[in-house]
Amino acid sequence: MTHPEYGEVSHIGDGVRRIVAPNPGPMTHWGTNTWIVGEGEVAVIDPGPPDPAHLAALLAAIEGEEVTHILITHAHADHSPLARTLAEATGAEVLAFGPPESGRSDTMIELAASGQVGGGEGMDSAFAPDRTLSEGDRLSGLGWTIDVLHTPGHFAGHLAFRLGDTLFSGDHVMDWSTSLVSPPDGDLAAFMETSARLAALGVSRCLTGHGGAVDDPADRLSWLIAHRKAREAAILNALGLRAAAIPDITAKVYTDAPPEMLPAAARNVFAHLIDLTNRKLVVAEPKLSVAALYRLA
C-alpha cells in the first residue's frame, strides 16, 4: 500500500477522487481520506481536520465544479471540522446524522452524564449539520446516487454512504486496523450488529476513512467480527470470581501492545465489559463505570 502524497488528487474510478489530509498518527494511519464523488456536480465526504493546506488542495480539486452536498460519516475531530469552512466557501449544505452526541444508547448517555468515561474523546464538539440524515435516505447529483446507511459502533451517529457497489465506510471498516470502539462514542453491541449487516450488504469494495480500499468487504467484516469475539473470549478468560480493575484486565489481554497504545486498548476493554455486563455475563462492582471492578457472573 503506497503512502499518498498530501494535497495530491487520486482518481479512484467510477467518478471518485481522493485527497488525503496531512494528519497522520497511530489512530489515523496516513491521514483522513476526503472523498469527492461525481464530476461537475459533486459531493464531498469527510472534509477532514481544519488544516489550511488541505482546504486549499480540496478547493483546487473542485475548482469550477458545484458542490451540492458535504457528507459527514461521523463528528470526530479528524473527519468533520473542515465542513463548515468548506460550506461557507462553496454554499453547500453539511449533512450528517446529527450533533455529536446523537444516537447514543441509554447506557452511554448515563455513562457520559456521570463523568466516569470523560466522554467525547476526539469529538468535534462544535459540529452541527445543516440537515440530518437517516437510514434509507437517498441523495443524488449529476450522474450519481448515494444511499445513506446508519452504521453505529465506532460512533453512535456514524453513517456510511453507498454508491453502487462501493461503500464509503468511514471508520467502521478499514484495511490497516480494527476500528476503535471507545465509550461513550463507541458501542460494542452496535458495532457487532452493524458489522453483520454490512457483511451481508453485497458491496464489492469499501473506501475507508483512513488507509486503502477494502476489496473484499464481506471477508474483512467477517474477520472483524471474529476478532471481536476472540477479544471477548480473552477478556472472559482473564476474569475470575475475584473482581479486577480495567488496567489489570487490559494488561492480561493486550500482552503485546506497546505502552503508548494501552490507553486505547483499555477503552476497547471497557467497551467489551459494558456489553458483557448488559448481557449479564459479567458483574460490575459497585456499578458499571471505568473505575468499577469486574468479575464473572
Could you characterize what this model shows?
- The protein is an alpha/beta fold and 297 residues long.
- The chain has two domains: 10-228, Metallo-beta-lactamase, Chain A; 239-296, no CATH class.
- Helices cover 29% and strands 22% of the residues.
- The strands form three sheets. Strands 1-2-3-4-5-6-7 form a seven-stranded mixed β-sheet.
- Helix 4 runs antiparallel to helix 5 (217-238), helix 5 packs across helix 6 and helix 6 packs across helix 7 (262-278).
- The longest helix is centred in the C-terminal third of the chain and has 22 residues, at 217-238.
- The radius of gyration is 19 Å and the shape is elongated.
Which structural class do the helices and strands define?
A: alpha/beta
Please give the alpha-carbon distance between the first and last residues.
45 Å
The H/E string reads EEEEHEHEHEEEEEHEHEHHEE
Number of strand segments: 15
Question: Which CATH architecture of the largest domain?
Answer: 4-Layer Sandwich
CATH class of the largest domain: Alpha Beta
Question: Nutshell version of this structure?
Answer:
The chain has helices at 52-61, 83-90, 106-114, 188-199, 217-238, 246-253, 262-278, and strands spanning 10-13, 16-20, 33-37, 41-45, 66-71, 93-96, 131-132, 138-141, 144-150, 159-163, 166-170, 205-208, 244-245, 282-285, 293-296. By secondary structure, the protein is α/β, with parallel strands linked by helices. It has two domains: 10-228, Ribonuclease Z/Hydroxyacylglutathione hydrolase-like (Metallo-beta-lactamase, Chain A), CATH 3.60.15; 239-296, no CATH class.
